[in-house]
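New to this. Help decode both lines:
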Amino acid sequence: MVETRVPEAAPQAAVRGLHQLAEGQAAQVLSLDCQGYVRRRLLDLGLVPGTRVEAVLSSAAGDPRAYRVRGTLVALRQSDACQIRVTLEDCP
């Protein structure tokens, strides 16, 4: 099992929905704002607090988008991605 470090409280301005990341931008998951089967599905895909996520590709229409999560590309619709709260990673 891979241990993840849950990020400390981020300034409110740095918190955004996953769908707002630009291609190539990376962030850490803070929380999931959903319940039921959608929450279960996102958790099963590895989107747990502290996980690094990178926006990689967009479809021609912009929805769905592909994100790199724990070394795997995961396609999410905007309606699902907007329920994932993230904080931007510092640029190296």
Summary: The two ends are 27 Å apart (CA to CA). The chain has one domain: 17-88. The chain has a mean pLDDT of 85.
